[in-house]
Amino acid sequence: MGWAIALHGGAGNIPLSLPPERRLPREACLRHCLQLGVDALKSKKSPLDVVELVVRELENNPHFNAGRGSVLTNDGTVEMEACIMDGNTTKCGAVSGLTTVVNAISLARLVMERTPHIYLGFDGAEAFAREHGVETLDASHFITPENIERLKQAKEANRVQIDYTQPMQKNEKDAATTDGDSQIGTVGCVAVDNDGNLAAATSTGGLVNKMVGRIGDTPIIGAGTYANSLCAVSATGKGEAIIRGTVARDVAAIMEFKGLSLEEAAACVVKERVPKGKVGLVAVSATGEVTMPFNTTGMFRACATEDGYSEIAIWPSTKE
Fold first, then answer.
1. What's the CA angle centered on 317, arms 228 and 272, to 5 degrees?
2. Which of 27, 44, 99, 151 qualifies as a cystine partner to 72, CB 3.0-4.6 A?
3. Where does residue 75 fall: left (phi above 0), alpha (psi -120 to 50 degrees), or beta otherwise?
4. Which of 298, 303, 300 has the alpha carbon at shortest distance from 315?
5. What is the pTM of this model?
6. Would strands 119-121 and 92-98 be described as parallel, antiparallel, or unpaired?
7. Buried (b) or exposed (e) across 293-312, using 16+ Cβ within 10 A?
8. Is there a contact between 10 and 299 (Cβ–Cβ < 8 Å)?
């Protein structure tokens, strides 16, 4: 048994031709956030503190679809959502429909720790943030030129899309054009300490050109985020498919009821429970295992374990 950490910056149809100006900043951020999490675990911070710390950093980076880099709705607005869960207690908190909160993941933790509820959304969540002195900024802070352009392209192509995807033209008759196409550029982190304590956290801006009021898998316990005494999971992909597949909970359930390892359970969910091209996840177990499977073209991901293993990658590695 030893500590382990894994994080992701979204799965989807990430082309191998992704330009360096879009790839390198994301890789650098993954490297920075991984080191931040490793240092926190080594300094004996709790896994709950670690996942919140890492996801806050990812939210503050405009290159990922969460917080500062959140993609835009079909009205050109931002609606952010997040979820955090403690494995030992299964306490959890979630938020949706945020327009001014700088770090949605920290508000989710406040919902967990300072309310009798699990999930707050929209005006109620914003009011709760103000009541507790959570940092907020004008909504314009979250609307970046890059995401304005992404929305423009998505509207022209008449589709909902992930931020990594190049929009298809209207005359392309691919099924993706009609079924919503692809995945969320979510961010997430899972961690376990030397005592087997687990935590998971996930945050997102959702889908480019999504309907106002749409809620994805990220804040739904057992879909995009889950942690118990066996494992911690953060998923990314097409939210509707992840919700249908109860992806995060299924990993834990397969471990519990089938007695499979973390890697086997996660592979089963990704390969058999969700259609190809729809999901990726990062997960750690109470015994320090780590796995990062996906059935999309790629997934921005990173992990490290106490025994010295570390990985930062986007596309499938040779062992995958």
1. 50
2. 151
3. alpha
4. 298
5. 0.93
6. parallel
7. bbbbbbbbbbbbbbeeeeeb
8. yes
Residue whose token pair is 């990173």: 302
Mean pLDDT, residues 179-196: 75
Express each pLDDT in 251-286 by its tens digit. 999 999 999 999 999 999 999 999 999 999 999 999
What does residue 94 show for φ and ψ, rounded to 5 degrees? -145, 150
Residue that the structure tokens 């066996």 belong to? 230
d(CA 66, CA 147): 12
Strand locations in the chain, DSSP E? 4-12, 80-86, 92-98, 119-121, 187-192, 198-204, 225-227, 231-237, 279-285, 290-291, 298-305, 310-313
Enumerate the β-bridge partners of residue 17.
none
3-class state of residue 222 by DSSP: coil
Distance (Å, whole) CA 56 – CA 64? 12
Round to whole Å and give the CA distance between 34 and 29. 8
Token match 């919503």: residue? 180
Task: Give yes or no for a contact between 18 and 315, defined as CB atoms under 8 angstroms apart.
Answer: no
Rounded distance, CA 130 to CA 105, Å?
A: 15
| Alpha carbon distances (Å) from 10 to 29, 45, 269, 315 | 13, 25, 17, 12
Q: What is the DSSP letter of 269?
A: I
How many beta carbons lie within 10 A of that of residue 27, not counting itself?
17
The string of pLDDT tens digits covering residues 128-137 is: 999 999 999 9
95 DSSP 8-state letter: E
pLDDT of amino acid 319: 54
For residues 206 and 69, give the distance between their C-alpha atoms in angstroms, rounded to a whole number: 11
Residues classed as catalytic: 186
